[in-house]
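The pair is listed for reference:
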Amino acid sequence: MDFSLTDEQELLLESVREFCERYFTEDVIKEMYETQNMPDEIAEAYRDMGFGLMGIPEEYGGIPADKVTLGLMIEELYRASGCNHILYQNSLTMFDIVEFGSPEQIQKCMDAYMETGWPLCSLSISEPGAGSDNRNMSCVAKKQADGTYRLNGQKTWVTMGGRLPYTIVVAKDEDPSRDNASMSLWLVNKDRAGISTASLHKIGQQCIPFCEMYFDDVVLTEDDRMGAPGDGFMMLMKNFEVERAFLVAEQVGLAQAALEDAAAYASQRIAFNKPIANFQMIQEKLTEMEIRVQNTRNMLYKVLWELDNDIPVQLDSALLKRYGCTECFNVADMALAIYGGLGYTTEVRIGRLWADMRGNLFGGGTPEIMAYIAGRQVAKKYAQ
């Protein structure tokens, strides 16, 4: 098995490093966390470098790239920047629109991105009573006598929902009851009457704003629909497997940054007249950290390779998310322990990495839900 990178991939990673060195200085990152915002200059530069267009079909102005190459780019983007920002997540709703949207919706999406550097829309899927339990969604779109629809309900954990002009809403068709599994996707302009938002205040990931979004008799038309009626949830589930892998790529990059910081600090910090890297307990932590990063990275690129080769990944993507995000967070936890009390201050970035990476355990499905998905597949795999 060939683990070497192509010349093109090497050049891509070098470009990512140069981009991060220029735009993600510690002063800029601190300002982003204080303002809970990313400067437009960074989003525009990310667009101009072509990173945000990777994986989008060429016919829509994108840059063809396989999943392995995208994973490499994402990992290096978060390792080299050393912070949990919004840039890669911007591509996810663009992928959804390009795959499931109408020609008009796709054009609107690409025009908005090329003009501003920001995606057209956020994704509104989670609800206060339906995070992991998706069947419990109650947001509903009901058809009216005049052929329009009325959207009512509440969404939460909407990434960039307060800033972006549109949102993709997952809503039940006609009946909000738990028994109704028919859901559709709607691309909704937030200028519509009846839409309001409220910011969510978090303990980490401060430079990625999240919000709650409320829909009160919002008028929709068939032009707002994405994909076929009733297929909305299954369409998103298809892309969730890719999202989980890319989220782990982000987590691996952040874990690698935490490992590098901790190893460098252990070589410099003097205790009992010698660097603490000479002590067996510190060596044990560093060894465990390296093992967990390497194991997760190997699982990650196996799943991305499977996706590139159209191999089903329902089991492997759940295993990757369950193991990878948890173990990478544990790397950050051990890194903080190596720093000791200093790591619990804002003088160094490890505390920020720790809090940000803890949040990634929830995105794309919690560890418990991943175990539920994977456990059923494992039982089926080995059934006699």
